[in-house]
């Protein structure tokens, strides 16, 4: 095999690390892959860490010791996150996307992988210090951004459903009051999570907070702690939600008129 050049090694390492966020790779794995000495690989990793940091691409972390190695964590600075979400707000504001009932059409946004991945990285950056063991969402529209957040954190995605599925085994079912005031059912397989784990709740939309509160109560049934709640969009009204401590990327208000106009803004914490 021909000698592998440094730029080739770094390109391959970056692809491997970013393809599995949060996963630890040992120095020996890279040494064997490239046929290089540990000292050479250490220098490459130091250079890669600087490039990733300087271009706001995330963080390359090294862990010393027998069980140590190198891993990648997607990170977004508040400045880049605020600029990205601000541009989304401009696209979503106006009269064209307002639906009956003062809902906002943004399914196209939640169906765009690049956009959803960026939102997931922003949410993961904000809650990574809480070290969640998994991301929890409710079917179905919140799944893309919840998956992106779980991927960025390097943890599993757990999906609560409206009814239990035979292929998921025995399940815990609870009743909750939805944002519209209806009594609905939420179900989760008993095998999906373990006691004393930590959950990060991620969903697409927050109005009254009924569904989010239902997920908190569902986690209580499993003796799981909820360490954070993140949403793509929340409404300004009602001002008092059934939950507290949540963070949304955007807030929305609808100004009455003919036609009604949506005003979408980046949440205050992104501008801090």
The second-level CATH architecture of the largest domain is 3-Layer(aba) Sandwich
Determine Rg (CA atoms, Å).
21 Å
CATH class of the largest domain: Alpha Beta
The proportion of residues forming helix, as a percent range, comes to 25-40%
In this structure, how is the largest beta sheet organized? 6 strands, mixed
Q: What is the percentage of strand-forming residues?
A: 25-35%
SSE series: HHHEEHEEHHEHEEEEHEEE
Summed up, the helix count is 8
Regions with little confidence, pLDDT below 50 for 5+ residues: none
What key attributes describe this structure?
Arc Repressor Mutant, subunit A; six-stranded mixed β-sheet; 12 strands; 26% strand; two-stranded antiparallel sheet
Fold and architecture overview:
This protein is an alpha/beta fold. The protein has 2 domains: 6-73, Orthogonal Bundle (Arc Repressor Mutant, subunit A), CATH 1.10.10; 78-271, 3-Layer(aba) Sandwich (Rossmann fold), CATH 3.40.50.2020. It contains 8 helices and 12 strands. It has helices at residues 6-18, 27-34, 38-54, 78-92, 107-110, 113-127, 143-153, 210-221; strands at 59-63, 69-73, 98-99, 103-104, 134-138, 157-160, 171-177, 183-189, 198-206, 225-235, 247-255, 261-266. The strands form 4 sheets. It has a 6-stranded mixed sheet, sandwiched between helices. A hairpin with a 5-residue loop joins strand 1 (59-63) and strand 2 (69-73). Helix 6 packs across helix 7 (143-153). The longest helix has 17 residues, at 38-54. It is globular and about 65 Å long. 34% of the residues are buried. The mean pLDDT is 93.
């Amino acid at each position: 095999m021909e000698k592998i050049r440094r730029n080739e090694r770094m390109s391959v390492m970056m692809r491997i690390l970013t393809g599995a966020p949060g996963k630890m790779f040992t120095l020996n794995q890279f040494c064997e892959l490239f046929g290089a000495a540990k000292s050479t690989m250490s220098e490459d990793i130091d250079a890669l860490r600087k490039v990733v940091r300087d271009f706001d691409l995330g963080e390359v972390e090294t862990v010393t010791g027998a069980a140590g190695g190198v891993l990648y964590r997607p990170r977004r600075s508040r400045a880049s996150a605020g600029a990205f979400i601000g541009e989304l707000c401009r696209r979503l504001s106006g009269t064209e996307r307002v639906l009956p009932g003062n809902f906002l059409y943004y399914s196209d946004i939640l169906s765009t992988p690049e956009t959803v991945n960026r939102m997931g990285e922003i949410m993961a950056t904000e809650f990574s210090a809480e070290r969640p063991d998994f991301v929890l969402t409710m079917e179905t529209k919140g799944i893309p951004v919840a998956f992106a957040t779980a991927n960025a954190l390097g943890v599993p995605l757990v999906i609560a459903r409206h009814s239990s599925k035979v292929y998921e085994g025995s399940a815990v079912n609870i009743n909750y009051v939805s944002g519209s005031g209806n009594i609905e059912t939420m179900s989760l397989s008993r095998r999906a999570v373990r006691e004393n784990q930590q959950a990060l709740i991620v969903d697409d939309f927050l109005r009254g907070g009924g569904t989010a509160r239902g997920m908190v109560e569902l986690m209580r049934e499993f003796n799981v702690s909820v360490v954070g709640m993140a949403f793509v969009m929340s409404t300004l009204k009602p001002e008092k939600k059934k939950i507290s401590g949540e963070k949304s990327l955007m807030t929305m208000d609808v100004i009455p008129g003919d036609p009604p106009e949506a005003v979408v803004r980046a949440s205050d914490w992104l501008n801090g």
